[in-house]
Amino acid sequence: MPTLPYIDKEKKTIESPHVVLVGAGASRAAFPNGDACGRKLPLVNELTDVLDLKNTIEKYGYLGNTTNFEAFYSEIFDKPQYGDLVNEIQKRVREYFEKLEIPNTVTIYDYLILSLREKDIIATFNWDPLLLKAYLRNIKVKSLPTLVFLHGN
């Protein structure tokens, strides 16, 4: 009867696939000094400051708490009076993350991608493109694991 996980007793290896979850703080840990141009990798609750959104939020008349960015964004997302604010936030987030550049040096993301096998999965909640950029620059090196973007991308 097979065991879970599958163990190849002759090779003395575990052959089952691995799933690596990459979540909050992973990009900051991988790039503590920022991207190739020194741009900060913000944690989600730093987005209001990093994207300079305070005045914009006030301009659109939102008076609630913005400390928890995900709660704030969820609160305004479906309210018609904040439609323009939602569009502006989406634009700024997209522009900021599109500008991020991966350093020309080997990163933790490169090591992670290259240490896994084709049957493995890296699932990420992060919005930044640096994991994908590391993946693309290593795509010709070997068969890589599958990337799954849990927030969409």
TrEMBL record:
This is SIR2-like domain-containing protein. It comes from marine sediment metagenome.
